[in-house]
Every structure is written in C-alpha cells, then in structure tokens.
Amino acid sequence: MELRSIRGPSAGRARAIVGLSLLLFALPILTQSQARGQTQRSPREIVEEYCRLDAAGGNFDSRNPNFRAIGSLLVDPNLAAYDTSVIIRSFRVGKSIVGKRGAKVDVMYSDVGILAGGALSRDVRSESVVFRLRQVSGSWKIDGLRMLPHISREWMLAEFGRESKAGEKEGVTDQEMKANFAKLSQW
Description:
Elements: H1 9-39, H2 43-55, H3 67-72, E1 84-98, E2 103-116, E3 119-136, E4 139-142, E5 150-152, H4 153-169, H5 175-186
Parallel strand pairs: 1-5
Antiparallel strand pairs: 1-2, 2-3, 3-4
Helix pairs in contact: 4-5
C-alpha cells in the first residue's frame, strides 16, 4: 500500500478532522484524570484542611470566608457553626487509618480557653479527637462531626480587634469584648 500526502484545500480539512478526533478521544481521559486528582485527597489531607480552616474561624461565623469551604468537607454541611468555641494554641494531625468502610484520623489540640455566649474562660488542656470519614461520590468527607469549633488564639485576638474597631466607629464600646481581648492576650 502506498501512502501519499494530501495537498491543497482538503489537506487542511483532513488535519482538522484528525486533530479534532484526537482531542475528542483525549478529552474524557484528561477530564477523568483531573477529577481523580481532585477527589483522591487523602483523609488526612481533608482533616488537616478542616482543622486549618476551623482555626481560622471557619466555623465561628457564617460570614467568615472559610465557612463554605468547611461545609464542603463535611458529609452534612449543616453541622457547621455554633455559638460556643474552643480557643486553641495549636493542633497536630496524627495518624490516619483507611479501611474498606471509611477512615479515621487522630487530631491533638492544645486548648487554652472557651468562648461561650460572649464570655471567655480559661481552660488549658490537651484534647484528642478522632475524625471519621467516608467516601461520598468519590471524595473523602468528614462524617458525623459532633464537636465545637476550635479557633486559634491568634485569629480570635484579630477578631476581637476587628469587632472592637467596628464598634468604636459606631460609637459603641463593648466592655466584655475589651476584657476578653485583655484576658486572651495574656494566655
């Protein structure tokens, strides 16, 4: 069989058809591999992101830009947001175990206090939490989360500062917030 090159106007059409065919063939493969890359984050990575967003106030207030991102990591996004929060110095994501039915990830928190109904109280302790995850549509999600938000001391100090400045602009001084800021600053 003899192969000849195509010349003229039909050559451009032939190249376009071959190129389009290759693109149509490759597109589903590329899309699947990209989707797999997004959904194949490990349970440990999901929990680490949750803890980072939570420490940055993601569960503290629905106006926080991290609030939706927190919800996207949960099987039930309605479990986010509370009126009581644990103030932490740090967290450490520990070991993870992945099984056929789900995964578990250990997290150790270094707590310094609790903010409940606007009142801040000192509560220094180490706290160990086991996050349980399951796959939903190919992505790992935190399942059955039943814990208070764990907000970093630094974020809370910044939040007290923002709220205090906003109140001062409106001519309102919140004495409880000022007292909380002073207490937390010393912890």
